[in-house]
Design brief:
The chain is an alpha+beta fold. Helices cover 20% and strands 18% of the residues. It has a domain of 25 residues. It has 2 helices and 3 strands. Strand 2 and strand 3 form a beta hairpin.
Amino acid sequence: MKPVKMHEAKTNFSRLIALVESGEEVVVQRGDLPVARIVPYSEATERRAGALKGQITIGSDFKEIPEGFEDDLT
């Protein structure tokens, strides 16, 4: 969908929400500058410490400085 100006968004808010409910994304502009995006609501997933335990590995060379980067460390 093309961006909508602020006044149009205020005037047609219910229609825009219906579009969002059908899966579209609406960008609201103030003048020619995009200032907001209206997207379908989704429940935040719960973050839990240790949820990826055993699924991530760190290479044995993790702390090594790649060749050519030594000069950038000063």
